[in-house]
Amino acid sequence: MLTPWDALYLERALELAKRAAPPAVEPNPPVGAVIAVGEEVLGEGYHAYFGGPHAEIVALESVQKPELLPQATLYVTLEPCCHTGKKTPPCVPALINAGIRRVVIGTRDPNPAVHGAGIQALRAAGVEVLLAPDPRPFRSLLRHFWVHVRHERPYITLKWAQTPGHPSGGILGHRTQGLWPISGFWGRVWGHRLRTRHSHIAVGYRTWLLDQPRLTARLWPGPSPRPLVFYDPRRGKPTLPEPFLGLPLETINKDFLQSLYRDHRVSSLLVEGGSRLLQQFLAAGWYDEVQVLVSYEAPLPPPEAIVWAPAWPPLKWKRRRLSPTEEVWIARPPTKGPHLPQKPAP
After folding, report:
1. Which residues are catalytic?
2. With CB atoms counted within 10 Å of each terminal CB, which end of the chain scores lower, N or C?
């Protein structure tokens, strides 16, 4: 049974895990760890970048009183790894060798190469292992990771800004003119923050041609995603400036998405527009999250030039107010297991 101190340090490990930017660690998960004895924190850390030391190792290396480790407890958001054949050594042997005798874990690792084996190895070495009674806060950090290990494809977020009109009828932009602004200042900040949570960002070729967007995270601290432009291969490959990468798109299916993941290292994809590209992903059912900014004071284009927003999928939506004139609607598809496609794709 967990003590109040256990709950407190697990919460601290969760806060540390949230510092990890998904694009920096992907395809690994964000993980945080704390080592403590009673009221004294001996060390802590989080997994900062792919190929770097895991959170448990960072925490161990920060310990200034190693003689206290046999009395200490390790608090970690995700089950420590025990498998080899990756960029870093497994964490379980390092924990055992350091003398850690008690470990509290937020949630089991969904990776089939681990999934309980790390806990079993610790217990076999005489380490007391406890699991958090509610794993949901810790699993919420693993949305991208689950998709990677179970389906070998990118985590996909669809995002657009529109005028009111839920569930349909909102206006997305202008048919012939680029950059018809829908988002206000706080809407743009929200959008740039969302960009820092993805390794890549995509638009269709016509959207790129009309808007010439930079697709960077200028208004939020963090890495900018690599920009992709999807084009119709029947019309030829367009010439794009660096760092834009042009990729042909005919059908959105499992093979296409796995090719993005394996061949182009697209671990998380933010699809921003235009309407046709967004509708393709929505129609195929390949998305893990949808975020829609609704602006109540956006200027309207002439009626003959209106581009209508995509029809919203029938999901359970959460609303977040950004400003007096803007709010974000967020939804994730219901699944039997975390983040399977909403419906089978061809």
Report:
1. 56
2. N
